[in-house]
Amino acid sequence: MILCSNPKLQYLAHKEEIDIAIQSVLAKGNLVMGENVEAFEKEFSTFIGAKYTIGVGSGTDAICLALRALEINDGDEIIVPSHTATASVAAIVLAGAVPVFAEVESEYFTLDPISVEKAITPKSKGVLVVHLYGQPADMDGFRKVAKKYNLKLIEDCAQSPGASYKGTRVGTLGEVGCFSFYPTKNLGALGDGGAVTTSDCKLAERLIKLRQYGWDKDRISQYTGYNSRLDEIQAAVLRVKLRYLEEDNANRISIANQYEEQLNSLPLVLPKRRPECLHVYHLFVIDVEQRNALESNLKSKGVIAGIHYPVPVHLMPAFKGYSSQGLIHTEKIVDRVLSLPIYPELSHEDQSLVINHLKEFFDK
Q1: Residue 347, Cβ neighbours under 10 Å: how many?
Q2: pLDDT tens digit string along 121-142?
Q3: CA–CA separation, 357 vs 293, rounded Å?
Q4: Which of 73, 91, 190, 223 could tie 63 with a disulfide, CB 3.0–4.6 Å?
Q5: Dihedral pair phi/psi, residue 3, rounded to 5°
Q6: What is the pTM of this model?
Q7: What is the Cα–Cα distance from 326 to 332, expressed in whole angstroms?
Q8: Is 224 exposed, middle or buried (0-12, 13-18, 19+ CB in 10 A)?
Q9: What pLDDT band is residue 181 in, cutting at 50, 70 and 90?
Q10: How far apart are CA 9 and CA 350, in angstroms?
Q11: pLDDT score recorded for residue 235
Q12: What sign results for the dihedral spanned by CA atoms 351, 354, 356, 359?
């Protein structure tokens, strides 16, 4: 069976180093907020190009804590795409803010700055920009909108560690960058994990307190915080995997190139790359009219394709009460998107099988 993503193979690719790293943590006995967390934060900051990285418990927590650190208050509006992982929106609500849904661009599926500007109200305080599928969003457009309306710019980089926009890594283009290290991500832990990046020392100080009950260095809570810590074992695993992230992303790009070369004559729309950007292909998502039939056909042949995402967040029962006017493209593409298998360890043979099955389907 060929899976859409396969974190087990990534573990096996670096098994010896990961096992040694885990055993080292267990032998030392310091399991929470120790030397590996501190070292990973420094190494990730260097990789991303930010002054500070604050490790937290998950990508959802990263967004929630970032909003709190930015002093987003109850009832403040944060504009966000509906075509995204539920976590992007859930984190806004958890922080006490109000999500306002905006449209995505038809070519890239990332949030549209024009739609964002139309969604701004006197209560708008920020924009959560999602670099969806590993593709950087239009940050020049968002910077202009944010400056014009005095909005905070928060990057959701859960699917895009290592991606860059005009030569600059995502996660450094707004006030804060929010990362998830869920096992299927380009930089995945062996469980949950996340981080917030920033170059603002005051924001970093707030985030450090917020992740642990609002504690200062004497463990006195200065304000209400959370329990959201990156543990030592996950940090140790991430330190190993971070050393291979650029190589792994290059493998993803190579696989994407092969898909594009072999599938460009089929009746489907391939992912478009934004000019002057590095797309790191967390997912390789095609736009195809016969999506459900194709998914079923591939599954019958042992190829598990994914759907990211089948229901827009604004149509989910939990979020139906929030503003979401005119999301025509968002509601259209959810019936057409299909994610083909892509991960650094996907073999040429397995990718060729996927490609051949796709060609056979359309040759009927």
Answers
A1: 11
A2: 999 999 999 999 999 999 999 9
A3: 13
A4: 91
A5: -85, 160
A6: 0.97
A7: 11
A8: exposed
A9: very high
A10: 13
A11: 98
A12: negative
Rounded Cα–Cα distance for residues 143 and 124 (Å): 15
pLDDT-based confidence at 325, cuts 50/70/90?
confident
Kindly state the tokens that stand for 7. 């974190």
Q: What is the DSSP string of 276-298?
A: TEE---S-EEEE-TTHHHHHHHH
Q: Would you say the C-alpha torsion 194, 82, 249, 354 has a positive or negative sign?
A: positive
**Cβ–Cβ contacts within 10 Å for residue 172, how many?**
20
The DSSP symbol for 136 reads: -
> What is the distance between the alpha carbons of residues 76 and 252, in angstroms, rounded to a whole number?
38
- Residue 45 phi/psi, 5° resolution? -60, -45
At residue 310, the 3 state secondary structure works out as: coil
CA nearest neighbour of 247 among 128, 105, 343: 343
The SS3 call for residue 184 is coil
DSSP-based three-state secondary structure for 222: coil
Going by C-alpha positions, the residue among 239, 194, 183 that lies closest to residue 17 is 239
- The position carrying tokens 């990332």 is 110
243-291 pLDDT tens trace: 999 999 999 999 999 999 999 999 999 999 999 999 999 999 999 999 9
What letter does residue 70 receive in the DSSP assignment?
Answer: T
Q: Look at 45-49, 213-217, 236-240, 350-354 and tell me which has the smallest mean pLDDT.
A: 213-217
Amino acid at 145: V
Cβ neighbour number for residue 73 with a 10 Å cutoff: 12
Q: Which of 302, 303, 330, 298 is nearest to 314 (CA)?
A: 330
Q: Where are the alpha helices (DSSP H) in 29-70?
A: 35-48, 59-69
- How far apart are alpha carbons 172 and 170 in whole angstroms? 5
**Which structure tokens are listed for 260?**
């594009």
The pair of structure tokens assigned to 244 is 């291979």
Alpha-carbon distances, residue 220 vs 149, 207, 224, 234, 329 (angstroms): 37, 15, 11, 27, 49
* Span 30-59, pLDDT tens digits: 999 999 999 999 999 999 999 999 999 999
Strands 284-287 and 337-340: what pairing?
antiparallel
